[in-house]
Amino acid sequence: MDRKLEKKFWNKKRILMIGGGAAVAMLLLYTLLFADHRATLNVEKDKITISTVKKGTFDVYIAVTAVVMPLKTIRLDAIEGGYVSRKYLDGGSMVKEGDSILRLDNQHMMMDFVNHETEIYRLRNELQNTRLSIRQQEFTMQQTISDIDAKIAAAQDLYDRNKQLVEEKIVARQEFNKNKFELEGLLRQKDIQLQSQKYQQDNAKMQITQLEGTLARTQRNLDLMRENLNSLIVRAPVSGQLSSIDVEVGSSITAGQNIGQIDDLNGFKLRADIDEHYVSQVFAGLKATFEFDGKSYEMLVTKVYPEVKSGRFQADMTFEKNTPEGIRRGQSSPIRLVLGKSAEAILLPLGGFFSDTGGNWVYVVDKSGNRAVKRNISLGRKNPLYFEVLEGLQPGDQVITSSYENFGNKDVLSF
Prior knowledge:
It is built from four helices and 22 strands.
């Protein structure tokens, strides 16, 4: 006969259901407690740049572009105005000191010169005639004095003889007194003539001095006008290269107008354009390095132009020792301008990440190499190659340094 079988509670089906439910519960609990809930973005590793943080020497410098210029440039300015009647040399020509470059004509200056020259001739003739007249007056005065001296001598002889005779009462006292008065009159006349002669001589000297002064001043004016006429021929003040000449035949030039320049090729300097951010850090005496033809040349900042134009200012640099052979005016080249002393630091290569994070955080690749996690950092100074790391990174860390523009604000990047 059939027996009734008792149904078991822990049957296979129930065990599987309870075990499966427990596993799911444990998985949910693990996910809730331990799983990474940070926002994750999948990226292609070959489309990003990963750089290694290292420890090394941080050089405080900036890279600027400089243009080769002559050590000295001499401006050619017109001393006098006029129109260009002849042009002897064109821009780019080599010149020697004193070479004629162009000629100006100025009819007004020519007329003034001729008038002053005529005045010189007139003054010379007047001075010569005055001297001749004075000389003739001197001869006349000498003749007059000579005549008076002869009369005085005769009167004196008569006076001496009559004086003795009047004492002997041979000559009347009246006759003697007449001779005496005549002698005294002649002496007074001579004294007047001598005073007159002295006055005329002093007056003649004054006239001659005035005429000579006028003649000398007129002569100086004439010499200056002659120099000005000579300056109508523009000559090279130094030897070098006539780098520019900005006039043509027939052009009208005003006094003081710049017409070109000459470059002294005995030395060169470099003029750099620098961002206005560094205007307070650049000053005369800073050192710089110039690379040319595989060699490095030390340079020194000699002059800073503080005026800022379009966000940039300029500085001149000269070579401390030898000038490189083969450099040419107008040639541009990068210059490494040192702004401070070098120091040991943790270095992070530059990259596009900075424009997206401001240097406040980066993505650091973990040890697995399969993902990168956001990490807060602090950066210090910057040079053309590296940032100085202050906090948050250690040598050997792998950092994504390319742009983060397409990553949004994800916490984790998965490769």
